[in-house]
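Interim report to the steering committee. The following record documents the input for (Mediterranean fruit fly) hypothetical protein (197 residues).
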Amino acid sequence: MPFTMYEMARNPDLQRRFREEVREAFLSNDGKVTYEMIMGLKYMDNVVKEVLRHYPPLPFLDRVCTPKAGEEGYSLKAFNMNFNVPANMPIYIPQQAIQMDPQHFKDSETFNPDRFLPENKHENNMNAYMPFGIGPHNCIGERFAMLQTKLGLLYFYRNHYVTVCDKTAEKIQLDPRAIIIQPVGGIHLNVVRDPLF
Ligand code: HEM
């Protein structure tokens, strides 16, 4: 949520669009919050997805090489690499770096929720997008986490928005020693009270 608010403060046009969607959702649902109403917030979904591309809370994945019986390791020949991953070798996948790589995401440094629109997806390599991990051990809490985050944002944005202040960083520096990502110096924003209806 704070990373979302940081990007919304930095991109006021996107924040206006974000709030407009929240306003319309409340008005067309008699001011009530329901599961279906949250699922209908398509722009919010893309904003949170883009936040998780820039700032995946867990910035790396880890695996251990468990070769098939009779094999000594896992050969990377099929991927044009002359390397045999030895049995039991721990592997760390720098998922945050992969998600910010311009090889995989067009204008990767730009905060652009619209990259997740169906018509734009082909410009990005969505196989490289893995904030909740990948494969049989991916995050079991993905849907709950998305719902909870959207719910918090919905209630906050119903009555408030954010702007940058003197202490807001130009660009967030991630603490290189943090296992769950942390912005160096925290996130500082102005909160403005402004009920939507
Ligand atoms: C935005 C919030 C969250 C993010 C970004 C996140 C991300 C991740 C990631 C990257 C993994 C490792 C997946 C892999 O190695 O392929 C993971 C695993 C896991 N997560 Fe989450 N998670 C979040 C919230 C939650 C919540 C709310 C729960 C529980 C209610 C949860 C439960 C788990 C569990 C149990 C695993 C281990 C799954 C396994 O090893 O089979 N996570 N999560």
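The helical segments are 2-10, 12-27, 35-39, 42-54, 95-99, 142-159. The committee is asked to note this result when reviewing the revised timeline.
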